[in-house]
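Put briefly, the fold is written as integer tokens. One such record reads:
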Amino acid sequence: MARAGTPERWPAAVSPLTADALQAPPRRARVLAALPAALYLLLPEGHEHVLPVLAADALRLPTGLRLATPSAELGWRVDQGDEVVVGEGRVRLPGADLVGVRTWRPARVPVVQEPVETAGLRATLAALEPATGAAVLRELARDVATAALLARTGRVGRLVRGLVGAGRGLTPSGDDALCGVLLGLRAAGAVPAGRQVEVALRRGVGATTSLSASLLLAATDGYAVPEVADAVESAVRANTAALARALPSVLAIGHSSGADLLAGLAGTVDALCRSDLLSSDHPHPQPEGARRA
């Protein structure tokens, strides 16, 4: 126990995605939300620079500063809109210093090297559809993925702009669906298509919440919570048994975030299933407006 007047020291594990932000010189960060298991801090570097402080029982966000203590034993002593100091390897809260003492490795969706046959992806799609959110999200995600796979950059930009920030909450439904698209394209090895979605996203990320923007940008490099990473990899590998085991954990994320992300993943698998995208007729799609020899 700390001496009277001395802040408690809470050791924490630091994500490599936010390690530089934690080590930077001390500066004030604003509390975006103070939930029982998580504290979201907006750093002054920009709209999408958010540091989540996570209790042991919190969702393992890839950008988070993770504590070993469960939420029932913590008290943040701050509210939304308050300011705290972040820097030099620690977060200074009233009565407590959260100190980064080690790093942890966030989950990352791997790029599947071996191609999956269309029949396998159709089995994946059949397994995903009952678990997804609104059908309109699946359709919009399919349109985004299709446009990206065909390198229709203008259409990708228009569709992404329509989804970013669409919905309510700290992570709106449109953003969750886009995370599913980004992770699904990466897992399928469609890296150029994923980069097109990323470019469009970076241009419009200011239209959504700061927390959601930070998680979307993490997803552009394949980072996600472990439950989602497992589901995406199982889906693209057409491992329906593993996918079925992963779905309940994903569906438990947020009010609808898990289902909305699965809608984005299902739309992406649907796009990959289409024979015109998988055939040799489009081995190297060119961006819109590209000159042809």
Remarks:
- The CA atoms of residues 111 and 187 lie 4 Å apart.
- Confidence is low (pLDDT under 50) at residues 278-293.
